[in-house]
Amino acid sequence: MNISPRGIGGPTSILALTMGEPAGVGGELTLKAWHRRKELPLPFVAIDNAERLIQLAGKLGIPTPIKRVRSPMQAVEVFHSSLPVLDIPLAEPCVAGQLTSANAVSVINSIDLAVSHALAGRVSGVVTIPINKHALYESGFSYPGHTEYLAKLSGSDVEPVMMLACDGLRAVPVTTHLSLRNALDALTADLIISQTRITTDALAQDFGLRAPRIAIAGLNPHAGEDGTMGDEEKLVIEPAITKLKEMGLNVAGPYPPDTLFSAALRPSYDAAICMYHDQALIPIKTLDFSGGVNITLGLPFVRTSPDHGTALDIAGKGIADETSLINASRVAAEIAHHRNAPHQAATG
Length: 348
Fold this sequence. Notes:
The chain is of the alpha/beta class. 40% of the residues lie in helices and 15% in strands.
């Protein structure tokens, strides 16, 4: 996650930031991130409603010159002096903190446009501002969240993997947005194997790690303690680990979940494979509540996101913390740099 605020170079040196939920804190975060632009490795273009951002900047007392642009390339040229916006119309005016499904189509259009630019090579990656799923569901949106929708747009047949990261820890939940009861039913050796392989490949391709070290968490207290506290370790997790080792992957476990994330163990691995959502997110948010990053692995384009929600309760108050968005932009730039390294080498 540590990447210096410098230009990265390559064929498409700009990121696309989506609109996210317009009633949430996303607009405020975008404004604040632009004011910290000297800390960013790459410029960004906001795929958003320009008038909304202009009004929000005035309300929050964050004077920001906003420039409507026609392309990411034009955005690169003006980023140093203006916040570039690829303008997306809203169906109705937006009020901070007041959720409505009327603008759901605009939210989805922003995502669609960002992905189309990424797939066409016009941007280096996509940083998605948090969405409100309830508002989208009311408009007919049928995907569990960003990740699944992005996978559909990409046309990839690889199941995307969610990785959460902060300084000193990367964690992957094998099962994601399921109730704990349903997550247990969904946990299989094949799923652990698939997610671990994608994670290993991504650590090599996207983060430049030559021999990624993977730690795999147990599910039960004390990792089952030889079956006395649950048999998922013996029946599901250990067979997956055996198969992964046969494939040549550098994996170890299952580790008791209550020790895996300790300061003593964290330096011994590059990523932890966790069995359910909160097993991965609790240590990330404990270590860095405001700065964590959500990274989607397995997509044909770079995608990161702040590791928080729309924060409707503080929207429009000027107190939202942009740290996670800054970090998400830095990580997206880091991944783009590693993916572009072969191109740079080939073109001299």
